[in-house]
């Protein structure tokens, strides 16, 4: 097993590479390891579940949709139900419907085979930049927002519900919510939101925003079918339409 500590003593990013094609697994794992990322090779869903259950857990999952012991969509949905770990879908199916399904179950990105290993590495790094492992609850929030009982800690990328319970958001969901909250009261088009969240370059169509909006509404709206926070301005885009207070001296 690879050493889980970097040379400076910090824990390395731990990424599961789930694909039944050994050649694909080896290429992806070698590419990640060359960048100091710990790659956990998984040939099937059972291997992935075992890796998820280990005490050290996973920081990210690269998941092929076609596995011998399960469908990638169902596997991702099962993991996403209890775990916000970022998921990058890896598949030979590039249709819009498959991309939408991946987003709906909580995937953070979608890479179509055949792919360039360096491009996949760039996707991993992009997701990594939007992650945090800092969970020191005692440290005051220096950069955040409050709205109707919710508390958003931007630096540690955490959202807390009025009850005090954490709200599990994927990387993409947090990025979108941050963009909306930061510009509360302003109507933002899909193209603007794609650009603000740096997803325009990810080869993802504007339907991405609609799917992420639906997911956010299910997690924070009292009644997702009659949104109180994220409202639709037909023909224009979306607006975060509640009072927002900033936290911290920025």
Offer a quick outline of the entry:
By secondary structure, the chain is of the alpha/beta class.
CATH level-4 homologous superfamily of the largest domain: Response regulator
Along the chain, the helix and strand elements come as EHEHEEEHEHEHEEEEHHHEEE
Query: How many distinct domains?
Result: 2
Low-confidence stretches: 1-9
C-alpha end-to-end distance: 43 Å
Portion of residues in beta strands equals: 15-25%
Let me know the number of strands. Answer: 14
SSE class? alpha/beta
The CATH topology name of the largest domain reads Rossmann fold
What is the arithmetic mean of pLDDT?
84
Strand order of the largest sheet: 2-1-3-6-7
The total count of helices amounts to 8
List keywords for this structure.
250 residues; Rossmann fold; Arc Repressor Mutant, subunit A; five-stranded parallel beta sheet; 8 helices; 34% helix; 21% strand; globular; disordered N terminus; transcription cis-regulatory region binding; Regulatory protein VirG; transcription regulation; phosphorelay response regulator activity
Layout of SSEs?
Elements: E1 14-18, H1 22-34, E2 38-42, H2 45-53, E3 60-64, E4 66-67, E5 70-71, H3 72-80, E6 87-91, H4 96-104, E7 109-112, H5 117-129, E8 144-147, E9 150-153, E10 158-160, E11 166-167, H6 171-182, H7 190-196, H8 207-220, E12 230-233, E13 237-240, E14 245-247
Parallel strand pairs: 1-2, 1-3, 3-6, 6-7
Antiparallel strand pairs: 4-5, 8-9, 8-14, 9-10, 10-11, 12-13
Modified residues (4-aspartylphosphate): 64
Main location: cytoplasm
Subcellular location: Cytoplasm
